[in-house]
Amino acid sequence: MAEAFIVGAVRTPVGTKKGALAGVHPADMGAHVLKELVNRTGVDPAAVEDVIMGCVSQVGPQALDLARTAWLSAGLPETTAGVTIDRQCGSSQQAVHFAAQGVMSGTQDLVVASGVENMGMVPMGANVQFALDNGLQLFGEGWLKRYGMQEISQFRGAQLMCEKWGYKREDLERFALESHQRAAAARDAGHFDGEIAPIGGLAQDEGVRPDTTLEKMAELKALRDGWELTAAVASQISIGAGALLIASERAVEQHGLTPMARIVQLALQGDDPVYMLTAPIPATRVALDKAGLGIDDIDVTEINEAFAPVPLAWTQELGADPARVNPNGGAIALGHPLGATGSILMTKLVHELRRTGGRYGLQTMCEGGGQANVTIVERV
């Protein structure tokens, strides 16, 4: 099987819901990272065969095949196609998988994997609002027969995880505080500078709160009475974009590209859709087993902090070293622009491996429907 390499990785700073990027059209934000990716790698854009873009709420400004409109908005060649995909929060990590699989199959040589989401302009859930507005069921009879009318939501899933693993509010708040502290330290040390393409006057991630404290978190109201969850222990509603260039060995030689990392393993796994957020645990086990690696072989892990119990349970169940998990903070501090997060996390991961000299990196994230992607890469 042919090898697939990541030869470029760039992201915007992650903006807050009402911050500097709120008015940036998603196609223009996508165009920004696509153009920057082409400029940084020096690749001939006409040689790119496809642009695969993750986006969850594909309505309004994010409709009409955002991948294609973003590429064209960047002034790049009309000959390159684009497709927009939705695997919920893992959409642009799945874009990386599809791009790598195209290259590894030998049918493609250069593919862009990307993601965009402006949650300030297109609210979360906008693409299901039609059903709600028109009295239509979101789930069909087959689903209702299997799972009934019970609530299916990320919020309930996170609370169910707290109950299953015994996490209390204080555990979650300590984790959230450390996420902010790690992100602030990384930002101040310039660890993100090389991966960020400033846009809209914003050059740094906007959601980091270096002055937050456990005392401030304790003042917040629980999301529901009797729950452990508050807004402080959940990912932020955010805005951002990321893009990576995936290349074959032939393309690396032909275009004079410099590999950053090699794709080692791609895995998917489903789990209980009611719990929704637990699938990274079994998916990671599958990926490590297929790769012939142990958790101690992984130097850096990026796991999306949708809610604090997700990385807490993952770290506990896998026996991972907490210092290697989200070493520069996660979505609680940096934000979670849904369909863009997978590409942003992979960009963070490969740049951190290069910065620290680590060998193996692993990325995973929980996804709607009780799913998870896992990607293992090796620094080149």
UniProtKB/TrEMBL annotation:
Among Gene3D superfamilies, the record links this protein to: 3.40.47.10
Q: What InterPro entries does its record include?
A: Thiolase, Thiolase-like, Thiolase_C, Thiolase_CS, Thiolase_N
Instruction: Give the protein family.
Output: Belongs to the thiolase-like superfamily. Thiolase family.
- Domain named Thiolase C-terminal is located at 257-379
- The UniProt record lists the keyword Acyltransferase: yes
Positions annotated as active site in the UniProt record: 89, 336, 366
Write out the entry's keywords from A to Z. Acyltransferase, Transferase
Which major enzyme category is it?
transferase
Q: What is its EC number?
A: 2.3.1.9
Q: Show which residues constitute the signal peptide.
A: none
Keyword hit for Transferase: yes
> What are this entry's molecular-function GO terms?
acetyl-CoA C-acetyltransferase activity
- Describe the location of the Thiolase N-terminal domain by residue ranges: 5-249
- This chain belongs to the protein called Acetyl-CoA acetyltransferase
